[in-house]
Amino acid sequence: MSAPRGEFSSRFGFLMAASGSAVGLGNIWGFPTNTASNGGAAFLFTYIVLAFAIAYPALMAELIIGRHAKANAVTALRGLARGPLTRALGGMVGYAGMITVSLILSFYAIVSGWMLAMTMASLANLLQFDAAADWLATGSVVRDAIFTLGFMLMTLWVVTAGVSNGIEKWASRLMPSLFIILVCLIIYVFTLDGAMEGLRMYLVPDFSRMLEPGLVVSAMGQAFFSLSLGVGTMLIYGSYINRRENLPALGRMVTLLDISVAVTAGLLILPAMTVALNLGVPIYDEQGGLIAGPGLIISVLPALFDQIGLAGILVSLAFFILMTIASLTSSISMLEVPLAYVVENYNTSRRRVGTWLTLGITAISLLIVFNFDTLFDLVVSLTTEYSQPLLGFFFAIFAGWIWHRNGILQEIRQGSENVEHTMFWRIWPVYVKFVVPVAILAIYLQTLLG
Predict the structure, then answer these.
(1) What is the spatial distance between Cα 24 and Cα 47, in angstroms, rounded to a whole number?
(2) Regarding predicted confidence, which is higher, 363 or 391?
(3) I need a surface site. Which of 38, 63, 240, 409 has the fewest CB within 10 A?
(4) Is residue 153 pLDDT above 80, yes or no?
């Protein structure tokens, strides 16, 4: 007998939780520099088109399967099976998703721990605790281990409180805070010398690059991965949606929110980088490309904040609070994937399961911390470049080829009675059956072939 399941109590709560899962560190540091390096607004336009043309249909597949099954990914996919072979495949995909998302969380917790440490460093600077600030801002095995554990405990605290009292409650507080801090930082950065150069880099299109295969594949990958697809997080959140809700409308709003945060982050990061360049801070790597990823967050931007005095300390504090919020809203959705499976199949309390899962994932994180140069990039590559897109492919196969079309229609009708007469139903079944799997395979082959 399964333990009682939670449910989102409101549409707003679901939207904040789902968009929080989608909005992570990659949206804030990866998307802006990816855009600037791939034709500016030409990439931006391509990304927006593909987010709705490819990522939205894939998102809908997970949400529909999740709400239909009202269960974890393993149970949900097995429930769609037509025979022993597809049942075994469903179990394999579900288990692989749990392993993949747990490994993603293991390295994500390390980077999120950096964000938490930098937040505390900014606070220590504000209070003039210089020695503490220097230790907090300087990477070390001890610091990284402590703050990785601290971040995982924060994630555990939210998730074990349940769906409505934990995930929904905190997402509904954190996501609006993220938007407010992001907008305030943009307004401030726009007042600094050099900001308009970054804005031009971001928004002026290089249309000559628009049809480059590399740009299209890169934009498709950004659109797909920015929505946390392929590892069951959106399936789990879909399973907590009330049956009265209109799923196509919810999916559109989540996609729009995710795009909005990514695009808005570009209005902060690129101007901030050119402001830094204007102040003598290098923003290009040895190959001539814009510095992106953790290097951007823990070297370029802190150097910028140091250049602008007391105001820089306040801006730094606000920025790293923003990054910690973005980290936490994603990590709670990741931990929920394996937690939901164990709770539902073994009738165990969320707190007990969450504690053991947190200990296990933290142990993997610490193994990576103590062998960082060997393991970090390897785990990132195996999970996000190889496992995640392949799992996304199988989710599309289950929605497009294995689940009966009439069963899908009946599920969507529960929140949208006339859905069969809408443009969504005329297009989506064909998209998820043919276009989405081919698009995901294109990304996968591009990765394999380099």
Answers:
(1) 17
(2) 363
(3) 409
(4) yes
Model pLDDT for residues 185-225, shown as the tens digit of each residue: 999 999 999 999 989 888 888 777 777 777 777 787 777 76
pTM for the model: 0.91
CB 208 within 8 A of CB 131: no
Residues 6 or more apart whose Cβ sits within 8 Å of residue 133: 121, 122, 124, 125
Q: How many CB atoms lie within 10 A of CB 296?
A: 21
d(CA 28, CA 32) in angstroms, rounded, equals 7
Q: Which residues of 114-145 are buried (b: 16+ CB within 10 A; e: fewer)?
A: bbbbbbbbbbbbeeeeeeebebbbeeeeebbb
